[in-house]
């Protein structure tokens, strides 16, 4: 497939895990890919890579402007950068609250705001932002859940504001995916969670890359404001069988 020939894709948190899988997928389909991450060491690779802190709007604006200047356009923005600082609500510090919200939610806003101008001028754009299956609520993740639920609201608003300009905005809510974050979970806890997945296995980064490549495609132009669960069915609910 060559759906992204001539398209320019910008991905945050693109140095590893889901971001790297998506960058690889878009590039394989012909896209020019620019990735951003705060981890300078992990950014080494064949794709254009920039050290960008998405919590800093000045850095984000400069990055998006440079991508547009160098490649002439910006067709797809993938807001993937995110962190976790899990704890019970009464034990979450101010620092951990703001850190998670600043990277996941405020960072996504910074990037979307910077991308909206170029996308409006060209009359075309796709914004894919990352929520989580946890956005509906999850024990010990008040900060993370607030950020990921905020992504849903942000996405729906961007969809409304971008529709008349040929810009779609959608969110992906991954379930348990084989990433470095999941790898840090101990065996019993991991097995317990996996047992709740109707498909009885975790997902792969490539599953997320497939979803992103679909939502960001030109052919998906009539899909906007949705949250796509990619979670093996865990968000559906429990079963008595």
Automatic annotation (TrEMBL):
InterPro entries: KR_dom (IPR057326), NAD(P)-bd_dom_sf (IPR036291), Sc_DH/Rdtase_CS (IPR020904), SDR (IPR050259), SDR_fam (IPR002347). Pfam families: adh_short_C2. SUPFAM superfamilies: NAD(P)-binding Rossmann-fold domains. One of its GO terms (molecular function) is oxidoreductase activity. It comes from the Bacteria. Keywords: Oxidoreductase. GO terms for biological process: monocarboxylic acid metabolic process. Residues 7-175 form the Ketoreductase domain. Belongs to the short-chain dehydrogenases/reductases (SDR) family. This is 3-oxoacyl-ACP reductase. The lineage of its organism: Bacteria, Bacillati, Actinomycetota, Actinomycetes, Pseudonocardiales.
């Amino acid at each position: 497939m060559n759906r992204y020939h001539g398209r320019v894709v910008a991905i945050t948190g693109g140095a590893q895990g889901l971001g790297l899988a998506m960058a690889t997928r878009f590039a394989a389909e012909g896209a020019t890919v620019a990735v951003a991450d705060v981890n300078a060491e992990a950014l080494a690779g064949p794709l254009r890579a920039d050290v960008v802190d998405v919590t800093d709007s000045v850095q984000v604006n400069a990055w998006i402007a440079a991508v547009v200047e160098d490649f002439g356009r910006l067709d797809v923005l993938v807001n993937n950068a995110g962190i976790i600082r899990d704890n019970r609500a009464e034990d979450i510090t101010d620092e951990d609250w703001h850190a998670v919200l600043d990277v996941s939610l405020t960072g996504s806003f910074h990037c979307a705001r910077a991308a909206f101008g170029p996308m409006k001028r060209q009359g075309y754009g796709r914004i894919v932002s990352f929520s989580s299956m946890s956005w509906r609520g999850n024990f010990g993740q008040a900060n993370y859940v607030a950020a990921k639920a905020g992504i849903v609201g942000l996405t729906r608003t961007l969809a409304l504001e971008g529709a008349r300009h040929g810009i779609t905005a959608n969110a992906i809510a991954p379930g348990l995916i084989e990433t470095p974050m999941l790898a840090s979970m101990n065996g019993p806890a991991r097995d317990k969670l996996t047992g709740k997945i109707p498909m009885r296995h975790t997902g792969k980064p490539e599953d997320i890359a497939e979803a992103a490549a679909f939502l960001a495609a030109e052919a998906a132009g009539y899909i906007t404001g949705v949250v796509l669960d990619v979670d093996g069915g865990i968000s559906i609910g429990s079963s008595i069988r």
